Backbone:
């Protein structure tokens, strides 16, 4: 393996990645935020966000991607998403029961509508995106003794 | 319905290729073709949410599988008790086909009629939850417990992976399993 190969792929891939990775991240955020209006939702959007970071890691090597989102930060966001989701569910007890939609419903087809559903989408997106990125980092960067050499 | 059957036949062929081909990378590509076919099937059946999720998760799994199989000599056993294995496989296929024949007779016709619970969601979903995407209103409002369970499963999976593949112990520097990029 050559020296420059260790820092990622070729110049063409790097240029294309630089142009597209922001759009992919933006599309993931769009899918998450509009999960209650159009098809999509927290899970799909979270995976797209994770894929944008994986794209960065495949093209530029691990240092650049881990500088944007380190492994500790991924673990933090993952746990934070889980706690956020559970917290939103527990806040339903202010009105009566678990997972009560306690915010006003708003007007249909608007971005700010549907009560807690967008908040739940954001929590799930944090959880899924950070969790899958952490799994990818852990699985891909793992090297066994026999392969080191 | 014709395009549905064409896609199903395409997926079955892709699965057979994925099993039979000797090269691991070609096998992974065939699995990806099966996933793409499944995503298009969901799109044909008018379920865009599931189609998006299937496509995106398929891409992620494919990247992980390609990174895992590329440039790596994994043990691949083809020899063995193939007579016994074939008999077991055929027996189980016959068993499952028999069970399916018994069970599927009682199911309602494909996509018709909408069930009682589903028709309630369709009628009252918008006014009760305010979400225009009914799938989102079902998974995050009516059936939020299921989503909580799914989130718990994913959390446990991530914790498990991070615990299993972490750096082992605190040894001396040269003995440590290094986390390096390829």
Residues:
């Amino acid at each position: 393996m050559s020296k420059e190969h260790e820092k990622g792929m070729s110049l063409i891939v790097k240029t294309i990645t630089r142009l597209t990775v922001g759009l992919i991240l933006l599309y993931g955020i769009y899918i998450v935020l509009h999960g209650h209006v159009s098809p999509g939702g927290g899970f799909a959007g979270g995976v797209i966000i994770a894929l944008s970071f994986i794209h960065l890691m495949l093209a530029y090597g691990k240092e650049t991607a881990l500088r944007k989102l380190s492994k500790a930060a991924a673990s933090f966001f993952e746990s934070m998403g889980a706690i956020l989701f559970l917290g939103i569910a527990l806040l339903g007890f202010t009105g009566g029961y678990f997972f009560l939609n306690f915010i006003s419903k708003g007007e249909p087809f608007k971005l700010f509508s549907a009560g807690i559903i967008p908040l739940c989408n954001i929590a799930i997106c944090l959880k899924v995106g950070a969790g899958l990125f952490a799994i990818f980092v852990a699985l891909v960067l793992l090297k066994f003794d026999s392969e080191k050499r | 319905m014709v395009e549905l059957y064409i896609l199903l036949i395409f997926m079955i062929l892709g699965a057979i290729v994925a099993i039979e081909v000797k090269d691991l990378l070609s096998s992974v590509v065939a699995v990806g073709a099966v996933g793409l076919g499944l995503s298009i099937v969901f799109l044909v059946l008018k379920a865009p949410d599931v189609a998006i999720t299937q496509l995106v998760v398929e891409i992620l799994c494919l990247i992980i599988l390609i990174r895992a199989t590329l440039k790596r000599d994994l043990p691949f056993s083809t020899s063995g008790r193939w007579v016994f294995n074939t008999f077991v496989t055929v027996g189980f296929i016959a068993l499952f086909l028999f069970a399916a024949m018994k069970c599927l007779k009682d199911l309602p016709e494909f996509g018709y009629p909408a069930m009682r619970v589903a028709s309630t969601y369709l009628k009252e979903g918008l006014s009760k939850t305010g979400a225009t995407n009914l799938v989102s209103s079902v998974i995050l409002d009516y059936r939020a417990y299921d989503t909580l369970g799914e989130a718990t499963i994913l959390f446990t999976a991530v914790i498990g992976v991070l615990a299993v593949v972490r750096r082992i112990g605190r040894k001396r520097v040269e003995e440590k399993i290094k986390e390096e990029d390829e």
Observations:
- Chain A touches chain B through 61 residues (CB under 8 Å).
- The helical segments of chain A are 11-33, 42-60, 62-68, 71-91, 117-140, 145-148.
- Residues 17 and 59 of chain A are 7 Å apart (CA to CA).
